[in-house]
Design goal:
alpha/beta; Rossmann fold; 2 domains; globular; binds NADP nicotinamide-adenine-dinucleotide phosphate; binds zinc ion
């Protein structure tokens, strides 16, 4: 075991504070990572606030981890000391179920292990990336291409893969029209990635406040969801509507934006249920789908895609002490577009 500095929430809804945690010894198939940057995902805030259910405290959040390999176990073949690497939301899975065998570890039916707020196969409570170091099985560590700076790469490990996977699955590409709902951490990467895939992208935001940013990210149109005309003018226009919103949305209105057999894909994880009139699906044979992060191989594919397109997150690098303020700003949709903690400040 080694003692590592970290930032943790000591109790539900409590501010994060400096602490130390224990990391396990580097096993034969483990990689020790010196964490350089950790992104702040809205999911961190949902979990610290116990918005999704009971959490394990003290909790070190952080599942957008970018760093450098400091040591490897004797059996490690995929990574070497000095490699630039990343870890996302998963640090283990059963590796035997159909989904694991298909590279869908995020849907592991045998039980996967989240990077924090979970219990791993050793019986230890997992602790995340707001810390100096982490020990992770080599199979759940991905390579960060040289073209991507570590700070702008960090948010790709959750936000990036969470939007890349459904955009690919639902066919975003040349000739397709995609609407991205919510221009936050996930949303701004959805715009960049959908544009890079070749789709025509419209942003639907709560207001026109961030319009210039959205257009600069590559969107060809930017509309306010507060304006009822948005829903009449854009009715039936999209093949895919991707909702990245952290709060309940009136899905019936957004389903009306879809063309025949179009798909509203939700990746937002609001703390309250939403209501739905099922007739919104019947007309036009519309689809309502969900998606959760992505598998390990697809995460590597996404990083390589982003590097190939010179594409990373728009970030504000902060010190660990600023994380509590950053949480408040994320909650009030005041983020442009991802806070990333410089772990040298922990
Ligand atoms: P974020 O940076 O806070 O972005 C969410 C955006 O949603 C905001 O910037 C805002 O965009 C919009 N929004 C917020 N409150 C709203 C409201 N009341 N009504 C309408 N729009 C609202 O959060 P994030 O890190 O991107 O995460 C977004 C959601 O996805 C969270 O619930 C998170 O837990 C979830 N998530 C899911 C997965 C998955 O695997 N499915 C992975 C990561 C995160 P505008 O200001 O442009 O309106
Ligand atoms: Zn996340
Ligand atoms: Zn499995």
């Amino acid at each position: 075991m080694s003692t590592v500095a970290a930032y943790a929430a000591p109790a539900p809804k409590a501010p994060l504070e400096r602490t130390t945690i224990e990391r396990r010894e580097v096993g034969a198939h483990d990689v020790l990572i010196d964490i350089r940057f950790a992104g702040i995902c809205h999911s961190d805030i949902h979990q610290v606030n116990e918005g999704w259910g009971r959490g394990r405290f003290p909790m070190v959040p952080g599942h957008e981890i970018a760093g450098v390999v400091a040591a490897v176990g004797s059996g490690v073949t995929r990574h070497a000391v000095g490699d630039r690497v990343g870890v996302g939301c998963l640090v283990d899975s059963c590796r035997e179920c159909d989904n694991c065998l298909r590279g869908l570890e995020q849907y592991c039916t045998g039980g996967n292990t989240l990077t924090y707020n979970d219990v791993d196969r050793h019986g230890d409570v997992t602790q995340g990336g707001y810390s100096k170091q982490v020990v992770v099985d080599e199979n759940f560590v991905v390579r960060i291409p040289d073209a991507l700076p570590l700070d702008v790469a960090a948010p790709l490990l959750c936000a990036g893969i969470t939007v890349y996977s459904p955009l690919k699955h639902w066919g975003a590409g040349p000739g397709s029209k995609v609407a991205v709902v919510g221009l936050g951490g996930l949303g701004h990467l959805a715009v960049k990635i959908a544009v890079a895939l070749g789709a025509e992208v419209t942003v639907l935001s709560q207001s026109l406040r961030k319009r210039d940013d959205g257009l600069a990210l590559g969107a060809s149109d930017y509309r306010s969801a507060a304006d009822p005309a948005t829903f009449t003018e854009l009715a039936g226009k999209f093949d895919v509507v991707l909702s990245t919103v952290s709060a309940p949305l009136p899905f019936d209105s957004y389903l009306g934006l879809l063309g025949t057999r179009g798909a509203l894909v939700n990746v937002g994880a609001p703390e309250e249920p939403v209501s739905l009139n099922l007739f919104s699906l019947l007309g036009g044979g519309r689809v309502l789908a969900g998606s959760m992060i992505g598998g390990i191989a697809e995460t590597q594919e996404m990083l390589d895609f982003c590097a190939g397109h010179g594409l990373g997150a728009e970030i504000e690098v902060i010190s660990a002490e600023e994380a509590n303020t950053a949480y408040g700003r994320v909650e009030s949709s005041d983020v442009r577009y991802r806070f990333v903690i410089d772990t040298a400040t922990i």
